[in-house]
Design a protein that fits this description.
Strand content: 5-15%
Structural class: alpha/beta
Number of domains: 2
Order of helices and strands: HHHEHEHEHEHEHEEHHHHHEHEHEEHEH
CATH superfamily of the largest domain: Type I PLP-dependent aspartate aminotransferase-like (Major domain)
Radius of gyration: 22 Å
Distance between the termini: 56 Å
Number of strands: 12
Oligomer: single chain
Shape: globular
Bound molecules: pyridoxal-5'-phosphate
């Protein structure tokens, strides 16, 4: 069913990648809670290990029928060729980049990214010999200047967490492709494919934390990597040894030679080598819950955006707010890019600098009742956190300042409740913070 390219978004989010179960006729996608799958014969088992049989399932660390429905559906919604699900958004980013990088390589990364990704790339990747240069997302000359002979990827968030800086994807992709000759990897967690499809704007690979809006219910941790199959790893093979060296146990020929005719070189290597060996596979239970969320994605995003816009208007008029950070907010440095790339709305993460700084911020988060004070975004419930002391505490003050995160910054993830009730809750918290 996923081959039906004509479906609109609302239809695809319900039907793409799924069909009634062949054995039982179950209409909803069942949870295939099994670690492994029986081979038909010794011959089929060997073909599976040699990557000659790509259809069947062998072991849930690499693939699983419940997870495969989520993967096909997200690939379809993003306009990608294939998707590989992982156990978390963190592992999606790590696996997507480790599919491209090895020790000694270098990546250029937007400064305005989620604190956990900043820790992963700036600390863990540094420990294994992968160098990173941070560049302000809007500084195109900075992207150019950061490129080294060892650069192998550019990484941005489509909408930066938590300050809402929007990446000019076409412009950054042009530098990545024409000057650096590397793929552009985009974390599009805050946008979702309903608001933006990065592959249509020059990205080669898209990652998501499916923990957030794609699941939407705040019950699972998950991630996904979507392959646009757009990057050419064949022209300069010496730069991409992982795609041109036969893999132990997988027969002869590198991934590019064998799978680029199927447009599966990147995604096949990601699944059969990187996911197989590092092992952060999602649970089929979590994939089932992800599928339940995907089916209402567009409906939720419309309400998320409407509520976020209502709160931006309220906050922009509030005497205790020094500045509102939202892609299309007054004074946002990337507002023009946001208006161009995000015609359906700029998502549901709204941050603001509260007058009175750190102390006022602490009193504020202690005083909300309807908003939940916790470290997550993209739930149906409205959420609030103080990034400098939590999600971004692993960064230095200078790194936080470069990412626009001041000591009094408060991040809201605007949920699906009545906007008037959310405003009333914020009013109460502002009064307590005064
Ligand atoms: N990317 C973004 C933009 C995020 O906000 C997060 C988590 O907050 C992640 C990645 C990491 O995802 P996870 O928590 O599912 O590992």
């Amino acid at each position: 069913m996923s081959s039906d390219d004509d479906w609109g978004f609302d239809t695809a989010q319900i039907h793409a990648g799924a069909a009634p179960d062949a054995g039982t006729r179950a209409r909803a996608t069942p949870i295939f809670a099994t670690s492994s799958f029986v081979y038909d014969s010794a011959e089929q088992a060997a073909a599976s290990f040699l990557l000659e049989d790509l259809e069947g399932f062998g072991y849930t660390r690499m693939s699983n029928p419940t997870t495969a429905v989520a993967e096909r559906r997200i690939a379809r919604l993003e306009g990608g060729v294939a998707a590989v699900a992982t156990a978390s958004g963190q592992s999606a980013t790590a696996m997507a980049l480790l599919n491209l990088l090895r020790s000694g390589d270098h990546i250029v990364v937007a400064g305005e990214i989620y604190g956990g990704t900043s820790n992963l790339l700036g600390q863990r990747f540094a420990e294994i010999g992968i160098a990173i240069t941070n560049v302000p997302v809007a500084d195109l000359d900075g992207w150019r200047a950061a490129v080294r002979p060892s650069t192998r990827a550019f990484f941005v968030e489509s909408i930066g967490n938590p300050t809402g800086a929007v990446a000019d994807l076409e412009a950054i992709a042009a530098v990545a492709h024409e000057e650096a000759e590397v793929p552009l990897v985009v974390d599009s967690t805050l946008a979702t494919p309903y608001l933006l499809r990065p592959l249509q704007h020059g990205a080669d690979v898209v990652v998501h934390s499916t923990t957030k809006f794609l699941s939407g219910h705040g019950t699972v941790i998950g991630g996904v990597v979507v392959d646009g199959a757009t990057f050419d790893f064949g022209t300069r093979p010496e730069r991409w040894p992982g795609f041109h060296t036969p893999d132990v146990g997988h027969g002869s020929g590198g991934y590019w030679e064998r799978f680029s005719p199927l447009r599966q070189a990147y995604s096949r290597r990601l699944r059969s080598t990187v996911l197989r060996d590092y092992g952060p596979a999602p649970s089929p239970f979590n994939s089932f819950l992800l599928i339940q969320g995907l089916e209402t994605l567009s409906l939720r995003m419309r309400q998320h955006v409407a509520n976020a816009e209502a709160l931006v208007a309220y906050l922009e008029g509030h005497a205790q707010v020094e500045r509102v950070h939202y892609p299309t907010a007054t004074g946002s440095p990337t507002a023009a890019v946001a208006k161009r790339l995000l015609p359906r709305g700029a998502g549901a993460i709204v941050s603001f600098d509260i007058a009175g700084g750190l102390d006022a911020g602490r009193r504020f988060v202690d005083s909300v009742r309807l908003f939940s004070h916790l470290a997550n975004v993209g739930d149906v419930r409205s959420l609030v956190i103080h990034p400098a002391s939590t999600t971004n505490s692993g960064q230095s003050e200078a790194q936080r300042a470069a990412a626009g995160i001041g000591p009094g910054l408060i991040r809201l993830s605007v949920g699906l409740e009545d906007a008037a009730d959310l405003v009333a809750d914020l009013d109460r918290a502002f009064a307590a913070a005064r």
